């Protein structure tokens, strides 16, 4: 059974990572769009670097929850038949043990060099303009996909979505494309679709099975069902 799981901020909420659209839309006094666009970075790089430095530090002190753990358990059972595609920039999936993982919106724990394109693992603050470990230029930015930029590994994701038997969406509002379109794509290619979210999202193509509740409760139960059926 080939499964694609798409995750969003809701899966990390119980770990203490704030979501985007449940919150007031303001973090540290900034509109998300003011710190999450290439234009914002050009206009005020210090503010943008400081914003992501703070997020990187905050995520370093939280832990995976039962939902991340359950998906790692599902990978142990299914191996490469399972692909987890996350919109999250935290590293809680990998810390829980998931390996077959795509970070389509990038990672807080990497930097992106605007001079040479390197994406080094990065745990320190960027606001001080440290040199790139590959080319030495002081042009590192957070390796996070901003509004108006193209997400990572879209071909790989789309191939997996059209080929899967089950498509599950966990903890995402379905407000941002292309991720929001994957349920329609999976459905069109015959997959069974399931949503595990605090509240049912208003997806254009409805899910076959929409379960409302906390990811920490819903995901372990769903994983048990999948493992029992496979
Ligand atoms: N369990 C399950 N779902 C939850 C929980 C929880 N404990 N808490 C919140 N949710 C749900 C909310 O109901 C909401 O539908 O998680 C969803 C979070 O939605 P958003 O805040 O919009 O986050 P997400 O869908 O990941 O955002 C997508 O938008 O700003 C960009 O690039 C950013 O990757 C992000 C993208």
UniProtKB/TrEMBL annotation:
Root EC class: transferase
Protein name stated in the entry: NAD-dependent protein deacylase
Binding positions for substrate per the UniProt entry: 52, 55
SUPFAM superfamilies: DHS-like NAD/FAD-binding domain
Reactions it catalyzes: N(6)-acetyl-L-lysyl-[protein] + NAD(+) + H2O = 2''-O-acetyl-ADP-D-ribose + nicotinamide + L-lysyl-[protein]; N(6)-succinyl-L-lysyl-[protein] + NAD(+) + H2O = 2''-O-succinyl-ADP-D-ribose + nicotinamide + L-lysyl-[protein]
Record text about domains: 2 residues (Tyr-52 and Arg-55) present in a large hydrophobic pocket are probably involved in substrate specificity. They are important for desuccinylation activity, but dispensable for deacetylation activity.
Residues at which Zn(2+) binds: 113, 116, 132, 135
Reported function: NAD-dependent lysine deacetylase and desuccinylase that specifically removes acetyl and succinyl groups on target proteins. Modulates the activities of several proteins which are inactive in their acylated form.
Recorded name of the encoding gene: cobB
Cofactor binding: number and manner: Binds 1 zinc ion per subunit.
Name of one Pfam family that matches: SIR2
Known EC number: 2.3.1.286
The protein's required cofactors: Zn(2+)
Residues of the Deacetylase sirtuin-type domain: 1-229
């Amino acid at each position: 059974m080939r499964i694609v799981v798409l995750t969003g901020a809701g899966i990390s909420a119980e770990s203490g990572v704030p979501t985007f659209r449940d919150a007031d839309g303001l973090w540290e006094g900034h509109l998300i769009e003011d710190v999450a666009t290439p234009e914002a970075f050009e206009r005020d790089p210090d503010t943008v670097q400081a914003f992501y430095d703070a997020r990187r530090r905050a995520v370093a002190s939280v832990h995976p929850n039962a939902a991340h753990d359950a998906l790692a358990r599902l990978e142990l059972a299914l191996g490469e038949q399972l692909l987890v595609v996350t919109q999250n920039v935290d590293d809680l999936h990998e810390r829980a043990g998931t390996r077959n993982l795509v970070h389509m919106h990038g990672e807080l724990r990497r930097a992106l060099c605007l001079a040479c394109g390197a994406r080094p693992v990065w745990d320190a603050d960027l606001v001080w303009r440290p040199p790139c470990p590959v080319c030495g230029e002081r042009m590192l930015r957070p390796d996070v996909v901003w509004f108006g930029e193209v997400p990572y590994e879209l071909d790989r994701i789309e191939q997996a979505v059209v080929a899967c038997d089950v498509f599950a969406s966990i903890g995402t509002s379905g407000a941002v494309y292309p991720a929001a379109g994957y349920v329609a794509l999976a459905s069109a290619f015959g997959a069974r679709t399931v949503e595990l979210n605090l509240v049912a999202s208003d997806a254009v193509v409805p899910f076959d099975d929409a379960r409302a509740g906390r990811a920490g409760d819903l995901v372990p139960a769903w994983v048990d069902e999948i493992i029992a059926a496979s």
